[in-house]
Amino acid sequence: MSSRGLLLAIVIVAVMALVAHRPALAFDEERNFAGSAQLDYDFVPSEPGAVAAPGPATTFQGFTLESALKVAVDISDHLSANVKACYGCHGFELDMAYFDLRAADELNLRVGRFSPSFGAFNLRHDPANHMTSDKPLPYDMGRMLRKGDWYNGVLPSPFPTNGAELNGTHWIGDVAQLDYAGYVVMGFKNDTDPNPTDFNLQESHLPYYVTSDPRPAAGSRIALTLKAGDKSDMTLGGSGMFGTYDPNNRLTYAIVGGDLSLRVGRTAVRMEYLVRRQQMDTSNPDIFKYAIAPVGGDLFAKHGAYVEVEQPLTNALDVLARGDGMYRVGNVSNAVVGSGSDAPGYSPLSYESWVARETLALAFSVERNFRFKGSVELWEFSYADMAGREAELSFHLGAVGSF
Amino acid sequence: MRALALLVATALLGCGGPSMDPEVASASAASRADYDVFALRCSKCHSLARPLNSGIDDDGYWRTYVAKMRRQPGSGISAQDSVAILRFLHQYSIEQRRRKGKPVDSPALTAPSPAPSETGGS
Q1: Which of B12, B54, B64 lies nearest to residue A314, judging by beta carbons?
Q2: pLDDT at B25
Q3: Cα A201 to Cα A141: distance, rounded to the nearest angstrom
Q4: Can you list the residues of chain A whose pLDDT is less than 50?
Q5: What are B24-55's pLDDT values in tens digits?
Q6: What are the residues facing A70 on neighbouring strands?
Q7: Do A41 and A375 touch, CB atoms closer than 8 A?
């Protein structure tokens, strides 16, 4: 870990400890200290590290740990604060550090560092809040097979950034809930590559809390929840985000998505679709796999979707079946994105590529706050790896605890 | 090996292993109905362990938090739901206090009612 990262980690832990153990104040300030940790073992029999394309196209096999500590403080009826520090594949990261200033249920101002409102999954991104060890592919942040080929999902979750958001919720009687959010944030960046072709997610998710780029990204979300009865509800939402990611503010990205979730009793059915349309710097045609098309040659689109059904079988055992995938269309940069790697640039993707995955998962609670997770995943790719395989299997076995 | 098989079998049948909510099993039908609302709504975004193992046994605190959760996007927690959820948490807090040997006639345990802002949005 860099000295900057270590310093940040020490500061975060110290601040959280001080906040959590401060004596109660006279105005009944409310504090809630929570956390979670997940240890997961990913077994990939096909040894993708040995057969994947050269470069960063490997898979995180073996053990990975995701952990988080969160402090929520209700300072008054109208002001609250949240600080959440995570430790995972990127080292320490400040997932949340924001204040909510609420005038009414319908009008709340959020300022600080947070994941802006987008899609339905991000609310459940903590591993204690979903039944699988990994995330749906559109929100994948490095756990997928051949991750380097795809450079993560459509919108790797969580996606903390600095900015401000106005949001609110309004109930219409007892049967409908309307949510909205609009925000301006720092957004995704790549100010390290000479010819940016994609986000620098390493930079965005490491302690990188200042930028010389003054132009923010903007986005919004609206969702409607309808209650059909005492034991069922349905949420339909739409989200969008737009910004530029290069230092010269020329290269745009737009992410839009739609989501639908149904709950009937304890059965949940969820589906989401996202697409990211992004421009690339084509001023150096030599880094691209294909000749630059005169029209539309400077952009790619990455689509992603998932459908999942979650069903408790007993008080302790849940089963989840999920189908998800991504489809990418557009030119392919053979340069390594995000710099910092000496690996040779090479991408096995073609102009149109896809990946599909089917997952069957079980989650078994041995205590309220502790559960084991197991899943088997069948992966199918539109292209063969260096061993000629277009399909692979992976197995997850993990344990997650929360408090 | 036989013990492991028995553990798995009983867990799969739901009649052994970790009973998730033993406090609820012996509760009255009305309390179970409140628990059902609590379980249905609160499990939408997080495990029930979060509230149940939080150690909170103060109705005022619960009012604040249920109001906060109700404001979460897509929570589906209506004003009517929040009354049932608070009723369950009130009973649950009494049980927790008894187990800890704390007084149950504390001012912290008042009659459950939603926070004023909870009904304001309806």
Answers
A1: B12
A2: 59
A3: 9
A4: 1, 19, 21-27, 50-57, 340, 342-344
A5: 655 676 788 899 899 888 888 888 888 888 88
A6: A34, A84
A7: no
Q: For the stretch B98-117, what's the b/e string if a residue is b when 16 or more beta carbons lie within 10 angstroms of its beta carbon?
A: eeeeeeeeeebbeebebbeb
Residues of B in contact with A365 (CB under 8 A): 18, 20
Q: Please tell me which of the candidates B11, B50, B65 has its beta carbon nearest to residue A364.
A: B11
Q: Which of B15, B47, B72 is nearest to A131 (CA)?
A: B47
Contacts of A383 (CB under 8 A, 6+ apart): A348, A349, A350, A353, A390
Tell me which amino acid residue B116 is: P
B70 alpha-carbon distance from chain centroid: 14
Nearest-CA neighbor of A221 among A242, A251, A243, A198? A242
- Could you tell me how many CB contacts below 8 A there are between chain A and chain B? 128
Locate tokens 């958001």: which residue?
A165
pLDDT digits (tens, 9 = 90+) for A263-319: 998 899 999 999 999 999 999 998 898 999 888 889 999 999 999 999 999 989 999
Q: What is the ipTM of this complex?
A: 0.73
Contacts of A261 in chain B (CB under 8 A): 74
CA–CA distance from A2 to each of A5, A6, A13, A212, B69 (Å)? Answer: 5, 6, 17, 21, 38
How many other CB atoms sit within 10 Å of the CB of residue B3?
A: 7
> How many whole angstroms separate alpha carbon A138 and alpha carbon A390?
20
Please list, in sequence order, all residues whose beta carbon lies within 8 angstroms of the beta carbon of residue A289, skipping any fewer than 6 positions away. A331, A332, A333, A334, A347, A349
Cβ atoms of A311 and A286 within 8 Å: the answer is no
**Cross-chain residue pair A174–B78, CB shorter than 8 Å:** yes
Under DSSP, is residue A143 helix (H, G, I), strand (E, B) or coil? coil
CB of A360 within 8 A of CB of A321? yes
User: What is the per-residue DSSP string for B51-117?
Assistant: HHTS----HHHHHHHHHHHHTSTT----HHHHHHHHHHHHHHHHHHHHHHT--SS-TTS------HH
Specify the pLDDT at position A343: 47
Mutate to test the interface with B, among A165, A272, A365, A366 (most CBs of B within 10 A): A365
Q: Residues of chain B whose pLDDT is less than 50?
A: 1, 3-4, 6-20, 116, 118-122
The pair of three-digit structure tokens given for residue A221, joined into one six-digit string: 């979300």
| Token code pair at residue B41 | 């709504």
Q: What are A324's strand-pairing partners?
A: A306, A357
